[in-house]
Each structure stands twice: as C-alpha cells, then as structure tokens.
Amino acid sequence: MAEIRTPATAANIGPGFDCLGMALGIWNTFHVQKAADTKLINVEERFNNSDNLFLQAYRRGCGMLGENSGIIAEFNCEIPVARGLGSSASMIIGGLKAASILHGDRLSENDILQAACDMEGHPDNTAPCLLGGLTATMRNVYREWIPRRLQVSGLWNITLLIPDFEVNTDEAREILPDMYSRRIIARNTANVVMLTEALRTGDAELLRHASKDRLHEPYRSRLIPDYDTIHSLCVNDAGGALVISGSGPALLLISPRQLSESACAKIEALPNRWKIVRTELALQGTQSKGDPR
Questions:
Q1: Are residues 143 and 286 in the same domain?
Q2: Which one-letter DSSP state was computed for residue 102?
Q3: What pTM was computed for the model?
Q4: pLDDT one-digit tens code per residue, 227-248
Q5: How far apart are CA 5 and CA 143, in angstroms?
Q6: Residue 106 belongs to what domain range?
Q7: 28, 91 contact by CB (below 8 A)
Q8: Cβ neighbours for 103, distance < 8 A, ≥ 6 positions apart
Q9: 164 with 220, same domain?
C-alpha cells in the first residue's frame, strides 16, 4: 500500500480572500492500493458513497491519465469537517495524488494543482495543502492557477480555536455581498499586501492592523457565537491577529506570545465546547511514501 498525507489549511488569513492560505500541522492520512472494486475504509457513513470528494478526485485523476481502475482507500482523518480547516481540499488533493501514484506517478505537481483548484473553485486551501507553507495564488489570462510560496517568520505562535458546531461553506458564501465599494476594495488590497510583509518580518503591530478584513469577516463572524468576546480575549492576551479560518467557524490566532492558561480557560468555558489546539506551519505540503502495488 502507498501512504498519502495531506495537511489542514487555513484560507484567507484575514484580507487575503480566495487568495492566501496556510498549511497547518494537522493531517489526514490515506493508505491506498489499486483494486478491481472500490472500497473506502474508516469513513463516516454520510461520506461513504460515490459523492465522496476523495473518490471524485481519484476518478478525475484517473480520467486525466486515461485509466479506470478501482481503489481501496483507508482513511485516518484528523482534520475536522466543516470547520474551515480545508478538509475538502485535503480530500481532493489526496484523491488526485492517489490516482497519480497508483498509475506510475504520471501527474505532475502542476497537473494536480490545476485540477484541484478547478474542483474546489478557489485556490486558497488547495495550493497550501499541496505545496505547504503560506501560499498566494492567482489566475492568469489563460485561466491557469499560478501559486507562489511566501516567507513566514519563525517567531509566530500558531493556535487554532475549534468549536463543536459546523458552518456550511455554501451558506458562508451566500451571506456575502455581491458588490463592494471602491473604498473597501482599496483598503482590503492595502491590508493584504501589508499582511504578507508582517508575516514575513514578524511585525506583530503591523499584523494587528493589516489582518483587518472588510470583504467576508464582518459577515461570517455573525455565524460564530461569542466571536467578539473570543477576539478580544485572544488579541489582548497574546497579541497579533485572530482571523476566521476559511469560512469558519474555526479561528486562527497568529501571535508573538502563546495564549495564556487563563485566557484558554475563559474561552473553553464558553458555550460550543471550544477546543484550543497549538499547531505549527506545515512547511511540507502533501507527502507520499510506500509501495503503490
């Protein structure tokens, strides 16, 4: 069997809407081999069907290669579903990678990236999941996705705050406006440029200001109970910035100091069973090893 590991991701990072994303040290692991009949092992019943994203991506990858084999895939998943931590991107990248390594490793990294971004519809989870680190991705005039890895200072503490409720990604997109003013767009553009500089240099004060978003967080924060309370607790205690991870409801804290035990206790005492997870930037993205036969 071959093994594939795909990291969790936090998309947007404040103002970097549908562009910036960060790979994190929480992993989904898949053990895969070719088979006459397809079988998914250790998968929740609601996902154990033909609509499974890993399976859809595997079939798309096989189609790109002119192949049509089944697969046995055993799932060991640490990334929580519907929390804004890139579980969908993890499945898509994992399925495409499985198609490649089970058929002679014939899909290039760029082949996988293009197919994954097309399937997801945006690159801010799929690019860091595949490539690792902090990525920015654009689409050129030929409709090709162009990713770049960006530098991140080693001074940052990275903490996830994960509640026990889900937010549907489609719902989180539907609440966003269709139009924004020129003033809002200009401010957000400035913020995302300065955000990348703050992350690179370790400038906590710059990060605090540059992490402000006006495109999605003012709307999505309404879907997260106690958001304002948690935001105030985190930023006042640890410094840096607290942002919504993807469409939420998980929150990402990037800070010069670790969150104190007293602040953690206050957050954990709130409703919705907030879980606080200290993690790190996953500098390596998707990884594979083992015999694909």
A1: yes
A2: T
A3: 0.95
A4: 999 999 999 999 999 999 999 9
A5: 28
A6: 2-150+282-290
A7: yes
A8: 62, 65, 67, 69
A9: yes
